[in-house]
Amino acid sequence: MIVKYVNAIPSASVNTLAELHRPVLRDEVVEWLAPVPPGGWIVDGTVGLAGHAIALLERAAETRLLGLDRDGESLDLAARRLARFGSRVILRHADYRHLADEAAECGVDAAHAILLDLGLSSYQLMRAGRGFSFQGDEPLVEPGLIRAVATLLAETPEAAMATACHPIREAAELFNPNVVKVVLDRAGLARYFSRAPVPFARDAFARSYDPVRGAVAPSKPALPEGLPCYRHIGVYAYRAEFLTAYPRLERSPLEEFEALEQLRALWHGYAIAVAIRQDAPLPGVDTADDLKRVQAAFDRLHH
Questions:
Q1: Rounded to an integer, what distance in angstroms lies between the CA atom of residue 298 and that of residue 48?
Q2: Angle at 55 between CA 50 and CA 61, to 5 degrees
């Protein structure tokens, strides 16, 4: 077995590992990929704890497997479970996006099938520091944003969550209650999320703000230079222990009135790190018109 991985875990028997993870549709995957030609390669681009890999190798005695995973801890555990298959298995610590390069380096010039299980394993959810989500009203979120938020959480040990924001450049956006604003401290941690126009530039808005309409008058739509106002982007990374604690936390009055679930975390003293992106992401869905625009974008992609 050729293995290229990091972050070895010192304990856990093979039997214990088997209990940590139940591969999704394991039997169905084996049936769909059968029969594998003698000596044929299966490439598992997300080998994880090797649940699918073991089933495929047991089904056909001559099957060979190239397994990739970017999670070094999972790959270490997979290596233990797959050790009995010896030279039939090659494991690489790599992202499946680099699958072609990894396959060429390992001498795999053709594969019977490529398997990608794009989700989280139960083992990952049990380990501290794992977990990620983006809201259903942000369907066009881009991969670079996800990586930035995940990296920020990894680099901010005091934070239980991480999320993102971008600068607000128009007064209409600041005063729109459908736009969630976030106030940051010097360290880049969230101090508050609100639908209200925060921070409020008292002097700049004194003559142009209409308290009845709750908006800036059209005659003075510009934001004062340097106002640190940010629009929250509905993308979150979580530590696993926080995910298990969150449902048990008492709902806060701030959460109830603002209708913003992240305020529960702040209310109970959990830190939220915020990545600042200079450019706004593709539009989210806050209104019926937004939904129509996103639906049109998806229609264009599929035609």
A1: 31
A2: 115
Give the number of C-alpha atoms closer than 13 A to the C-alpha of residue 26, restricted to the C-beta side.
Answer: 15
CA 181 to CA 262: how far, in whole Å?
12
What distance in Å separates the CA atoms of residue 71 and residue 96, rounded to the nearest whole number?
11
Q: In the structure encoding, which two tokens stand for residue 234, read together?
A: 């509905």
Q: d(Cα 174, Cα 145) in Å, to the nearest integer?
A: 22
The tokens for 130 are 């794992």
Q: Read off the pLDDT of residues 69-114 as tens digits, 9 standing for 90 and up.
A: 888 888 898 999 999 999 999 999 987 778 888 999 999 988 988 8
Residues of the chain within CATH 3.40.50.150 domain(s) are 2-122
CATH code for the part of the protein at 128-301: 3.90.550.10
CATH number of 2-122: 3.40.50.150
Contacts of 149 (CB under 8 A, 6+ apart): 132, 162, 163, 164, 235, 236, 237, 275
- Give the whole-angstrom CA distance, residue 195 versus residue 174: 9
Quickly count: other Cβ atoms within 10 Å of residue 161's Cβ.
24
Domain with CATH 3.90.550.10 in the chain: 128-301
Q: Is 3 exposed, middle or buried (0-12, 13-18, 19+ CB in 10 A)?
A: middle
Condensed to tens digits (0 to 9), the pLDDT of residues 155-191 reads 999 999 999 999 999 888 999 999 999 999 999 999 9
**CA–CA separation, 214 and 29 (whole Å):** 56
Question: Measuring CA to CA, how many Å separate 147 from each of 23, 74, 200, 238, 262?
Answer: 25, 19, 31, 13, 20
Tell me the C-alpha distance between 198 and 183, whole Å: 7
Model confidence, pTM:
0.54
